[in-house]
Design a protein that fits this description.
This protein has about 250 residues and is an alpha+beta fold. Helix content is about 35%, strand content about 25%. The strands form 2 sheets. Strands 1, 2, 4, 5, 6, 7, 9 and 10 form an 8-stranded antiparallel β-sheet that branches. A two-stranded antiparallel ribbon has the order 3-8.
Length: about 250
């Protein structure tokens, strides 16, 4: 009888030992599952937050219909549009003063005197305050406001606008002279005084506008530039060399 009792005692001890070992193992799995569940929930919450942020970033940003991407670019764009608006308003005011069709040409010769291939662009008294230099691209021919300005040679108008960079109201004409590609630029004219449009063919000495002080200017004058083959040349010397004393 002792052996069976001993066997039962042994089996009982083994069973208790198995239970003691199994219970902590089971207990340890429960927090792990809870931690995993919590991390999964946090991840889901974070994913939802990221989706919301992504949608907010993808939404169109109101920049006032500007394509600029930096504050400086936006400010520059606004300044350019404001300058263009001022130029347009001034042009309309000048046109209304001139009566209907634009700046008044009453009593003004529509063609400059002379018959040469190259003409002086200023149809009145003036003096040259400065000419081509390292920091200045042309000759400043200073005269009275409203002095008529003429095409220096026959050609085709490439640019005619009331807002041409620092030139203000400006006109650019392309010519072919002596087989060379020549362009002349006329800057700082009075708002509303342009008499030509882009694409228009003009004759030497044809009226193109009137002297003013628009753009980057501090006094009434014509800023006159000459380029041959795209390179700047001294305008006064060029006029003299082509039979149009300046």
């Amino acid at each position: 009888m002792k052996k069976p009792l001993r066997s039962i005692a042994i089996f009982g001890a083994v069973g208790a030992l198995v239970a003691a070992v199994a219970l902590p193992a089971y207990a340890s799995t429960t927090p792990t599952t809870e931690v995993a569940t919590t991390l999964q929930q946090v991840a889901m919450d974070d994913a939802q937050s990221l989706v919301v942020a992504s949608e907010a970033t993808a939404a169109p940003m109101d920049r006032g219909n500007y394509s600029a991407t930096t504050p400086d670019e936006i400010a520059q764009k606004k300044a350019e549009e404001a300058a263009a608006a001022r130029a347009e308003a001034a042009a309309k005011a000048a046109a209304s003063r001139g009566g209907g069709g634009g700046y008044s040409t009453a009593g003004v010769a529509l063609v400059a005197p002379g018959s040469g291939e190259v003409r002086n662009p200023v149809g009145g008294g003036y003096y040259v305050s400065r000419t081509l230099s390292g920091s200045h691209n042309g000759a400043d021919m200073v005269g009275d406001a409203g002095t008529p300005l003429y095409a220096a040679a026959a050609g085709t108008v490439r640019i005619s606008t009331d807002s041409y960079y620092g030139y203000g109201v400006g006109v650019v004409i392309d010519h072919v002279l002596g087989g060379q590609q020549v362009s002349t630029l006329y800057g700082h004219m009075i708002y509303g005084s342009r008499q030509v449009q882009p694409g228009q063919t003009v004759q030497a000495g044809q009226l193109i506008g009137f002297m003013g002080s628009t753009g980057r200017s501090t006094a009434n004058h014509l800023h006159f530039e000459v380029r041959i083959g795209g390179s700047l040349v001294e305008p006064i010397g060029w006029l003299n060399a082509n039979g149009a004393p300046a």
